[in-house]
Structures are given as structure tokens and as C-alpha cells.
């Protein structure tokens, strides 16, 4: 059975953002956006590019690294600075109420190592809460990483600096995830200047020695890029992508992984795995589209923090493809399914292939389990495991099976666009029963997706990972009211108002998304700026009831006295919403009474939307045309065609030439 969730931390599912690669014909058609919001409509949204009068930021750009929201305070780590924003302030502004500056004192040595001057800064890559009052910040410090503790309320430094090695990368381009659990810092990054020593590390533990993964072992970690860390039950999970050692015969193949370690792991015996994890195991996450040709999304890009979905722990991931087709997907993985996968067979190489280890060869207690629990209930600490168990764990960190997504397929797929970030609201709508995905893309857009929720009577697709007794899943059960919808495509990146730092890669790439539901907004981060994005644009529908309801937006409701407005708890009763499309509203306002008692025509609706920089094609892929209009168009086209054909024939007609009269002999 799955371990109990941590108190106060509901974990129903994990959403993953992944990228894929396979034949084009197996990829599903992209959804048509029901509304497209252009830059002219988002230009007025508040932005932050740096402190006023800060010449360094004005010259080099903001260089965003990561952000952390603590209640109504948003903490943003960048190059040489940490900024604190009060999200409860006026939504029309985005400017920090306080900040700290932490610059490196080691630029000369950095330059002597062959680095450019603009690389020799302090890129603050770690920003994690240590307790309710303090947070840990770690920076690259000109390729000599350091960590400091700061007070959350004042950003004042507390205590002395400590080394950032294995807690923060040397280079800002290298990946890092970190989290405090039980007073210990769990981090995953590279531990050396050459980036050859990838490590999952536990440190700053009171009265305990640091613990880490095996050094320079391709079986444990091979060129990993770490994406997320989260606790669940007696374990801490790490989500990452890496080069698959089991597929080395095919070349460098990237796969999505989840690894786990026990929170009570104290390392092995002096003979085997001393000061190394005894519980480290990893398994492949298989986000794919089933069919004759299976399409895999293996390049893990983003993983949501723990969410509650249908009362079950899960995570949402977003991977993309790494072959010729730029495509991305979002998959949900129930943590119970992930947990069961660690009970599967171990993998080991046999010649050029990897095969499952027969169960009779697996020692007992089972390698990877936690001391004092389950099969190892009689083992006091991890150092008391038999040498046989520890040796097997050292050589067999990989499980042979793979974890499939909830529902057996992705929640959402997209071709031609690389999705890079993911945020999710699982309690959207007046009843809190809708799931909305916000997806950041490499081209500077944010996609807002209403995920489908299967009805209780829906059946599970083949190859799914349903737990016994569970009948509700995200997915598409064939009912038109239960389809995933792409509600909005929102363009946000404006190069003229978001200065890109040198060496920032793709400047339009969305680097961070942070939901703040109390103010109904999404904070969007690029390398050069931050932006406050409202969750909805209900006002664009004005007094057009059809357009408001046909938008299917769970954040918008129709109120006869006020028009189309964002939903809030203080609204009077009598509002309407149609997220399921059950009313069959076309989205036009022909014949409907608008403001001032007038009638809305189709031209009026388009004019209203165009003036706000929003192109609203109605109900997207399901748009329909009234029959009288269709018949009129067909008859008009026929008449015009006949007339044009007659005119052309008349103009091009040649005069008849009479035949010569035959001369009699």
C-alpha cells in the first residue's frame, strides 16, 4: 500500500511537462484556441525589469533565476539580488517593497579561470524556506558557490556563510533543486567545477554526516538535469531527465526519471556504501501517446508541486520530444502508481540489453526499502542492513518497469511549440471542481487549458494506471462535454520591454510560473522581466452573454446586471456559467440586447473585441454557422459564379468564320 502523506501536505498527483520524438502521423491534432490575446492587449499588464537607477541591471538585464511565494510575498532570486514583492498591493503595479544585494568578492579569480566578466557574478540559484522565519539562499558566487541564511520578514542575513558545494551549482546554466525536510537540506546538482560529479545530497542535518549518491557511477546518475524535489510519506522524490544507461546501445537517449531515497537513511556500513544512500532507486516515467506507433515524451521540463486531484496524491509533469518534431505534453502521475513501480523487478545488463532480475536472486530485506519499515521492520538503522543487501543496492539502482500516466495518455499535447513551465489550479470555478493548466512556452506565450474530467461512469482506457476502486480520471471519455479545451493563447514577451541578458539562451522562453489565487493572477517570469497576468479577461465579452458563456472559462460568469465578470465569492446569486458547453451557445450576439438597450450584431462583437486587441473566434474547433447564412452564401456564390462564367464566355467569344463555297469543276 502507498505510504501515508505527510501531515499538512496533500499529494494527489504530479503533473509533468515533457517533450517527445516519433513519427509525425502518431501525434494528435492540436486544439484550436478559443481566444487569442495579442501583445497589444497585454502591453498594459504590470512588469518589472529591475530597480530604478540600477545601472548594472539596466546594462545587463534582470537575469531571473527562480521565485518562491510565501503567502502573499513573492521572493525573486536574480543576478546579485533578491527581491521581495507584496502581491496584496495594488494589482496595477509590480515593484519590490524590499530587496537585498549580494555581490561576489571573487571576480578576479573568476576571470583568471577563463570566464567572461559578465559571467563572474553571483547568480542566486537556491531559494528555499528553512523554517517559518528564515530561508536559505545559495549563489554561484563567481564559480565559487556560497550559501547564506536570511530572515524572511526583513531579508537581513542571519549567521555565517557556508560552502555551497553540492548545494548550488558552479555555473548558473546547471540545474539545481533543493528542499528542507525534517530540518535537513536535500539538494540535487553537480558538485564540481567541471560538472562531472552529479549528486543527490543531504546536508545541514543536526548531528548527522552528509549523505550522497555514488560518485562517478553511470548506473546511479548519467548527465542528469534535475527538475523537482518533493517529499511524500517516508521518502523524498527527485524528478529529472538523464541519458539512459540501459539504452546506451542506441546512442545518447534521454529519458524522464523519478528517484527516491528514504528520509531515515543514515548510509551504509563501513564496508559497503558508507556515507552513501542505501535506499536510492530510480524508475522511468513514461508519458506517451498509445497507438500502432508509440510516441514518447522523454525530455522532462517541469513538474508541479504537490496538488490534490480527485482526493488522490499525484504529480503533473510536462515533457517534450527530443527528436525531429518539436512537441510537448502534460501528463499526470498518481503517486500511488509511482510508489508501486518501486516494488517491481530490478534491471541489470545482459550483454547489450538490460533484463529484469529474477525475484529469487533479490536478497532480503529487499534493497531500497527503509530501515524499521515494511520488509525491513527488524532493521534498526540503514547501516545494519546485510552486506548482501547493500551490495545489491549499489549495483542495481534501476527498476526494470516504467510508470504510466493516469488515464493511459497525456492530458494535453502540442506540436510546433516547446512548453517550458507549468502551473495548475485544481479548484477553479464557482464549485471548485475544474482543473486549469497554465503552460509557459519557449516563444513567450502562455496557454490556458481547461483539462477534461471524466464522469464517474467513464471507462479507463487500455494501458492506464488506475488504482483499485478509482473510477475518476482526467482525460477524454468521448463525451463532448468532457473534452480538454484550449481556452486562451496569450502573447506576453515583448523584446522592447523585456531586456534579455547576454547569454540567456532563448530570451522569449518562459522560465517561471507562480499562481497567486487570492489575487486571481499568474506571475510569469522571463530572463529579463516579470509580469502580472490576470487569470481571466472576462471584460472583453462586455454585455454579450453568448460570447461570455461560449468562452467556457471557469473564471468568468454571466451576471445579467453587470455583464461578463470574474467569479468571486461575494457575487450575488443568479449568475450563469457553461464550462461544459451544454447550452449549445454559438458565441455570437445577434439579436441579443446590449448595453443601452441596443442590439448586438456580429460586426459589433468583432469590433468590440478588436478594440481590445483580442481575436475571439467563438467556440474554437466546435464553431458553427447558422443555416440561413450558409444557404445564402452558397446561393450567392453560385449566382456570382454563373454570372462571371457568362461574362468571360461573352468577352472571349470569336466571330464565326464562314466556310468557303466550293467552286464547281
Automatic annotation (TrEMBL):
Keyword RNA-binding on this protein?
no
Top-level division of the source organism's lineage: Eukaryota
Q: Where is this region: Disordered?
A: 454-479
Q: Does the keyword Metal-binding apply?
A: no
InterPro entries attached to this UniProt entry: Plexin_repeat (IPR002165), Semap_dom (IPR001627), Semap_dom_sf (IPR036352), Semaphorin (IPR027231), WD40/YVTN_repeat-like_dom_sf (IPR015943)
Which intervals hold domain Sema?
A: 29-535
GO MF entry, a single one: semaphorin receptor binding
Could you identify this protein by its name?
SEM6C protein
Organism listed in the record: Cettia cetti
Task: Tell me the lineage of the source organism.
Answer: Eukaryota, Metazoa, Chordata, Craniata, Vertebrata
